[in-house]
Amino acid sequence: MDNNDRRSDAIGGQEHDFAREMLTRVAFVRAFETKAWALTQTNPPRVPGSMHFCAGQEVVPLAAVAGLRDDDQIIATYRGHGWALASGLDPRAVMGEICQRACGVNGGRAGSAYMMAPDTRFIGENSIVGAGTTAACGVALANLTAGNGRVVAVSIGDGAMNQGSVHEAMAFAAAKSLPVIFVVENNGWSELTPTSAMFRNERMARRAGGYGIDAATIDGTDPIAVRDTFALAAEQLRAGKGPCLIECTVPRLWGHYHRDIEHYRPKTDKQAHADRDPLLSLGERLVGSGIMDRAEVDAAIAAETARVEELAEEVMRSPNPDPATAHGHVVALPTARRAEPDETRTMTYVEAVNLALRTELEADPRTVIYGEDVGQAGGVFGATRYLQRDFGEARVFDTPISENAILGSAVGAAIAGLKPIVEIMWLDFMMVAFDQLVNQASNVRYVTGGKTSVPMVVRTQQGATPGACAQHSQTLEALLAHIPGLKVAVAANADDAYSLLRAAAADPDPCIVIEARGLYQEKGPVQLVRAAEPVGLARTLREGSDIGLVTWGTMVPRVLAAADELAGLGISAGVLNLRWLNPLDETALVDFAARAGGRILVVHEAVRTGGFAGEIAMRLSELAADGQPLTVRRLTTADTRIPASPVLQDELLPSVAAIVSSARSLANTARSGGRSKAPRARVET
Ligand SMILES: Cc1ncc(C[n+]2csc(CCOP(=O)(O)OP(=O)(O)O)c2C)c(N)n1
Predict the structure, then answer these.
(1) SS3 632
(2) 263 catalytic per annotation
(3) Could you read off the pLDDT of 40-57 as tens digits, one per residue?
(4) The pTM is what?
(5) C-beta atoms surrounding 260 within 10 Å
(6) Which of 273, 329, 472, 604 is catalytic?
């Protein structure tokens, strides 16, 4: 059959009940969308913000879910009201969420396009186009590990088929044979642009072949075809055949969003889509097949409309969220846990990373470790060496070179019960997948009001080393520390490398542990612990009363060397290794500053503008006791790019000599009671 024809064929006897039920359900979702639309159209709107509706596409979620098992999971497109309702969420809670009320699925934190309930089968929508696909890979990974036979269906639009994350997800799912059904709801439009203008091939399904993924194109207005195709796909996935893609052609009956007047859309196109209205065609088929008469169809639709009207008005009378709750559930409350010391061993930094990973794999069967080259080869720096050999390919494995899929799947896997520790080979490479941390991992606890957390750890490394180019040398921790919901550590030595990773693995929130490539072969004592310390603890490495040097990561050894030199010059310099930028150990910082007479020099390898020294200065000025003297200066890399030549690098990065010079200047300024020009030799261009 041509997918653009309206379905009119008769419905067989065994399908009468299903067809009747589908009419009721499609009518309910249509009424739901109609009412939601109406709530946005008043002046001022009764519900503020953008809303996207699934009018014309209702059959896909409703019939797909009918073809799946009750415990199979759903990740929806941002146009996802229909999927949320089909997945069994309480319609009042769904309406409550799109109306941003306290009774909503997410208490008004999510709104229409980012509703999530990972404690149910409805993992959630995603308002970043295509991003649900990588999370689906992680959920599927957790299902495979648990051996529970569950399947994940993730829906996207046709426009989303041009998103990088979707391609990475398909590559990842194919490589790992994950039980994911990629559902493409092809309504012919990518927001305000016809999808045909962006694709050379008419059928989305043909793209799947390039990944070795089976695919089908079906009429997404036909409930029986949709249900049966999903049932067949799920059966194959449960049999271990790997992912598949189902393209459902559907009409887009309304505009892209609630205010879309569709000035760009040809009337002929609009009419062709209206002719495929699944509510009308289903009604006609029911009448044509003698299952219901016209009056019964009309009455069924009217009854659903009345039901929705009643529940929506009830929701609109219900309270808004309590403003006081806006601050909660960004991250878990800090624990009072104490590290339990075991023994001290000397090892290199990278061996300490390896030992921490090994310890986590031994301690918790839910821990999985993956990334590019981390499995068989043991990582490009050897951090994961022999872990696959000792713990097996299911727990330590290689991935495609797909940073979006690595991080996005970790989010999904963590939501679904695993404890992923993933490696991003270079922090510079994280930039191609920032969405997964900034928009995905960081949001889940907040949006779900603390019901779901994302206990994932991302290991990466950074910094300038001789010969490394500008795309392999940046120091970018401040970018990450800026994001509420993420926890960020920077390891300065072997002991940090071990203890920060252990702390991160024990934490319920997404943690990023940044290692220092330039220090990987440095040896040092490591205090092994049975139970990890909590996240967020700084360490005073040296006490000093004339000046306090606050630093982290690669600068710690240089700052310690500088403190030695300063001692020789009669200046007592303390050193605080911050270790965590977020959460920041404010108590340690403030106490340290007080002990150092309020004279603080912050030293970091990152460039000056937007660097974390600025945050430390502000935090100290906000927190320092009244009347306490406070002078904060910084020594950083200049605001430049990082050159490969070691000669040029040396010119830019804070050296021991520069640290000594800046510290002396600050200490002497304080001693003379005056205020000299800020020692900014290394931060000026
Ligand atoms: C990564 C990203 N880019 C752009 C947008 C803006 N945007 C929202 S919806 C949309 C259109 C998506 O089209 P399609 O995938 O075909 O879904 P449909 O609207 O047809 O349901 C766009 C571009 C976004 N939300 N996320």
Answers:
(1) strand
(2) no
(3) 999 999 999 999 999 999
(4) 0.96
(5) 15
(6) 472
